[in-house]
Amino acid sequence: EALSMNDYDYDGKTIGDIGCGPFGGIFSCETLKLEGSDSHVAVDLLADEYNRMKSSPVEIIYGDLSKQLPFEDGYFDYLVCTNAIDHIPKVKHGFKELRRVLKKGGIAFLHVHLRTKKQLNKAHVHVLTVGKVESVIRKTGFTQIESKEDLDWVNDDNSRKAVYMILQAI
Fold it and tell me: Cα 46 to the chain's mean position, in Å?
């Protein structure tokens, strides 16, 4: 586990996984215990398709991080965004939208691919560095609590890196 997610108190809190993927993201992970939360909300652009697959233990709600998510301001206490923000056309807009739906003082757990120009593809359209991500964070209402650059968890290619972050909404 790249981040210390288990160090937080989820009792009575609302947790969202934005860009959860077909299996419900963190809500399908048996090793990660987020016990005590009032609400688990899995969100993905491909929710209809994923729900038809019946591969997730929770229903997935449609939400597009490149537009406006279907939640009121400050809806979530905690957010997880894994392998999603680097897929959208405007990264800064995605961070602003995550901040909008997160309560002041709320915590966001983030995973962002760090790709070189040679590693770009149809799904991953940004050359991002830790410095670029940190710059966007500062401009969109977050402060950084924890950050770790490491291998990208989605494959075993040692040339692909990612940054794992814990952010707090200010």
Answer: 15
> Per-residue pLDDT tens for 2-22?
567 777 888 889 999 999 988
Rounded Cα–Cα distance for residues 170 and 165 (Å): 15
Q: Are 98 and 109 in contact (CB under 8 A)?
A: no
**79 neighbors 15 (Cβ within 8 angstroms):** yes
Distance CA 85, CA 102 (A): 15
Neighbours of 108 (CB within 10 A): 24
Percent of the chain having pLDDT more than 70? Answer: 88
Cα 55 off chain centre by: 19
Amino acid at site 8: Y
Quick check: 88 and 63 in contact, CB under 8 A?
A: no
Between residues 59 and 31, the one the model is more confident about: 59
Q: What is the pLDDT of residues 52-72, one digit of tens each?
A: 999 888 889 999 999 999 999
